[in-house]
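cron nightly-structures :: item 1 of 1
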Amino acid sequence: MAEPRDYYEVLGVARDADAKAIKDAFRQLALKYHPDRNKEPGASDRFKEIAEAYAVLSDPNKRAEYDARGFAGVAGFSPEDLFGGINFEDIFGGLGFDFGSPFGDFFRRRSARRRGENIEIEVAVPLERVLNGGEETVHVGRPASCEACHGSGAKAGTSPRSCAKCGGTGQIVRSQRKGGVSLQQITACADCAGRGSIIDTPCPECSGKGEVYRDEVLTVRVPVGVEEGTALRIPGHGAAADKPGLPSGDLFVVVRTAHDPRFERQGADLYRNETVELVDAVLGTSIDVPTLDAPVSVKVPAGTQPDTILRLHGKGLPRFGDGARGDLYVRLEVHVPERLSDRQRHLFEQLRTTETRKQRAKA
């Protein structure tokens, strides 16, 4: 477990900061990291850290204890002791965002029963699937609720019994009062290992765990023009919940474009390199260019320069939502021969002589 950071460092204030500076710093950070606003990974933990730092530093007595003894000076405070005296309406009022009493609710939510965790996997789809849409098969291994015991962990025909020591909570709470402040120490119950229940006869299928590892083959529908990184949701195929009777999480299939040696994808547009011989770049020619539909003949104008890009309108991928197709861009590379026959060398020498005379005439 990571070591807690200094409360002043958490809020980004100096150790001699006044109450207003501490309040302003907390207000700014709390608005940024509040879990109802910020869904990024780690935002909830960051918010809890910010809240705890403000709860201590905004209270003169708690701050004095912290300054004198560090974390030992504020150990054992319950959420009610930490946040009970803070007026959130005064801090966040008028912002149109309901903080209410977020901290008590927040900590209760963290300890409450939850559905299973979501699972994320990736699937590589070919360009033809992006063009036309269709179904893709995905393989996923996940912990799922044991069907034999319905996730209870107990052998069929039996049930777990509530732990008598902790009353089914999975926690042992020891309270004491110190200097007019109520201190609570919460530890996992040793008898039930924090589960709240005891299994006398474990299920033989899952060895009392309540879940088994399952390999599944699922079909996901890929929409026409699906964009790179799109997450397709399959409800109920995530990880099993940690408590029987609660729903499993969801499976999110993140779409990636499979490598295609013919094209490079950029959104709805495709890019491709073609090589033409020097003489064809000078005199002009036609080349056959593959597309996702069928090869097309493309005219290379006389005097084409290296890295010239030709645009084939409507030969790219459909745009997600409206179906309008992007373009195919063909980048022309001019091949300069490294070895020449005597006849070819003679012709190039004649060309150079002609160009030299032309330049002298201009001079």
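cron nightly-structures :: done
The radius of gyration is 34 Å.
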